[in-house]
């Protein structure tokens, strides 16, 4: 793989597992030094030795809660002290719960909005002093649920539409600094989040988790679940020199599930 991100510093939030880990791996393959941020410190620490070092770069783990301004500030200070800048920010950390609207709790609403929306805002804002001078790339994890209705996920869908909107506004405000802001909208991705969701959805719809998962495949014209690496491919492109003139975009990575 071409190391077009050589000498770049990348922070990936929620990179201890799933899509974030695949993205951290891709940035590392492309030559970036990657900071693996995660609320699960053990997972972040375990991820670092798995990252390739084709141009002898150094990766590190950072325990961080994207919903906590102080925790976010501490990571940015560390990045500033060590590297003096940040080139690529991947706001990947996100959570979900599933419920019928009539049973949805305020706690679920707040949990989803705090991590998925406030987290993106807090980390983006705190990163700006490290990005403004040299420009850079911000990529946000939205979802197919940021462009299309998702039943049993009204709160999650609302939070991901918010990420989509935030991406577009931020793209305009940050363009003068040479910072592009885009988001990705993955479909049904095989991760621990999906493993939990098929159990919840199965319970709510009186189906087995396997039957729910089979439905996800049926709803995907390309006929399989999305893999974290499918998302990492597109995020790697958005971080690459070839995507330098794209901003404010929402890219679907859903095998066509978003168009049916
Ligand atoms: N899995 C899917 O089907 C799917 C589809 C579309 C979009 N997404 C989005 O992609 C992103 C990654 O999802 P995933 O499926 O890999 O999830 P996952 O649950 O497998 O992994 C999420 C990671 O984020 C970390 N995290 C959670 N809360 C955090 C916080 N407050 N601060 C820092 N880290 C935190 C977790 O510890 C975990 O390591 C999320 O934003 C999710 O909404 C997922």
Q: Give the C-alpha Rg.
A: 18 Å
The bound ligands are: nicotinamide-adenine-dinucleotide
DSSP summary, beta strand count: 7
**Spans where pLDDT lies below 50 across 5 or more residues:** none
The number of helical segments is 8
CATH topology: Rossmann fold
**Full CATH superfamily name:** NAD(P)-binding Rossmann-like Domain
Q: Cα distance, first to last residue?
A: 34 Å
**What is the N-to-C order of secondary-structure elements (H for helix, E for strand)?**
EHEHEHEHEHEHHHE
Rounded average pLDDT: 98
Sequence of strands across the biggest β-sheet: 3-2-1-4-5-6-7
CATH class: Alpha Beta
Question: Would you spell out the secondary-structure blueprint of this structure?
Answer:
Elements: E1 9-13, H1 18-29, E2 33-38, H2 41-47, E3 60-63, H3 69-83, E4 88-91, H4 106-131, E5 136-141, H5 154-174, E6 179-186, H6 192-205, H7 209-218, H8 228-239, E7 250-253
Parallel strand pairs: 1-2, 1-4, 2-3, 4-5, 5-6, 6-7
The chain binds nicotinamide-adenine-dinucleotide.
Descriptive overview:
The chain has helices spanning 18-29, 41-47, 69-83, 106-131, 154-174, 192-205, 209-218, 228-239; strands spanning 9-13, 33-38, 60-63, 88-91, 136-141, 179-186, 250-253. With 260 residues, the protein is an alpha/beta fold. The chain has one domain (9-189, 227-259): Rossmann fold (3-Layer(aba) Sandwich). The chain has a seven-stranded parallel beta sheet with strand order 3-2-1-4-5-6-7, sandwiched between helices. Helix 1 crosses helix 8 (228-239) and helix 4 packs parallel to helix 5. The longest helix is centred in the middle third of the chain and has 26 residues, at 106-131.
